[in-house]
């Protein structure tokens, strides 16, 4: 076996005008695909290639020390991108509803307060990285991580992420990261967030 990309759950054009087709296509076929190919090459001939991606990212101590840094980078990027694609939907956007909507209001006071805190985590992440909504010890938290890091590596259950590496938005938004973050809210897949929340609980 080997690791593979799941097909995008929508077409390259389906998130426009919020995210343009060229942004998605290059991001998915070049950046994400490159991480997966390099991860498989790094683990070729190893039984680790038969692990689930989530199990591998959760416990990198199983990786031989000489390969651990490379596998952390590549597996982390594969996991993060897979969650990012599923965080988006052509029929998404709007305010969170269902159980996650209730939990957000209980934890942050209101959806707008949650959105403001998440925006700040995404906008202020220095350099390349990600912003997250996760569940840790039964409590929702907002965080940001650099490069390939993910809350999964520290025991949390990621529910929603935005990719703030420049390759995620530069073709469309240039250096205007806040504009990209604003567009993200028009396509957030709350059904997927609710499903992950139910599983994590």
Count of beta strands = 3
Annotation field: number of helices: 8
Question: How many separate structural domains?
Answer: 2
- State the low-pLDDT regions, or none: none
- Residues in β-strands, percent: 5-15%
Query: Main beta sheet, described?
Result: 3 strands, antiparallel
Secondary structure class reads mainly alpha
- Share of helix, binned: 40-55%
Oligomeric organization of the protein chains: single chain
CATH topology of the largest domain: minor pseudopilin epsh fold
CATH superfamily of the largest domain: Iron/manganese superoxide dismutase, C-terminal domain
How far from one another are the termini? 30 Å
Which sequence of SSEs, written as H and E, runs from N to C? HHHHHEEEHHH
CATH class assignment of the largest domain: Alpha Beta
User: What is the mean predicted local confidence, pLDDT?
Assistant: 97
Shape: globular
Q: Can you tell me the CATH architecture of the largest domain?
A: 3-Layer(bab) Sandwich
Order of strands across the main sheet = 2-1-3
Compute the CA-based radius of gyration.
Answer: 16 Å
How would you characterize the overall build of this protein?
The longest helix has 23 residues, at 21-43. Strands 2-1-3 form a three-stranded antiparallel sheet, with helices on both faces. With 201 residues, it is mainly α. The protein has two domains: 21-86, Helix Hairpins (Orthogonal Bundle); 98-200, 3-Layer(bab) Sandwich (minor pseudopilin epsh fold). Helix 4 packs across helix 8 (190-200). Strand 1 and strand 2 form a beta hairpin. The chain has helices at residues 21-43, 53-58, 65-86, 98-108, 111-124, 170-173, 177-184, 190-200, and strands at 129-136, 139-146, 157-163. It is globular, with a radius of gyration of 16 Å.
């Amino acid at each position: 076996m080997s690791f593979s990309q799941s097909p995008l759950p929508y077409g390259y054009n389906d998130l426009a005008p919020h995210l343009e087709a060229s942004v998605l296509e290059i991001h998915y076929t070049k950046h994400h695909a490159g991480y997966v190919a390099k991860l498989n090459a790094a683990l070729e001939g190893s039984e680790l290639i038969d692990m689930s991606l989530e199990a591998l990212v959760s416990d990198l101590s199983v990786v031989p020390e000489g390969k651990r840094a490379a596998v952390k980078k590549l597996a982390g990027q594969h996991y993060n991108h897979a969650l990012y694609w599923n965080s988006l939907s052509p029929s998404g956007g709007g305010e969170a509803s269902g159980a996650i909507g209730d939990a957000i209001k209980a934890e942050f006071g209101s959806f707008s307060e949650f959105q403001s805190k998440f925006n700040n985590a995404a906008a202020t992440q220095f350099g390349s990285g990600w912003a997250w909504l996760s569940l840790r010890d039964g409590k929702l938290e907002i965080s940001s991580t650099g490069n390939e890091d993910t809350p999964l590596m520290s025991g949390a259950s990621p529910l929603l992420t935005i990719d703030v590496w420049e390759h995620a938005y530069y073709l469309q938004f240039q250096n205007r990261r806040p504009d990209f973050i604003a567009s993200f809210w028009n396509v957030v897949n709350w059904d997927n967030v609710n499903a992950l929340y139910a599983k994590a609980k």
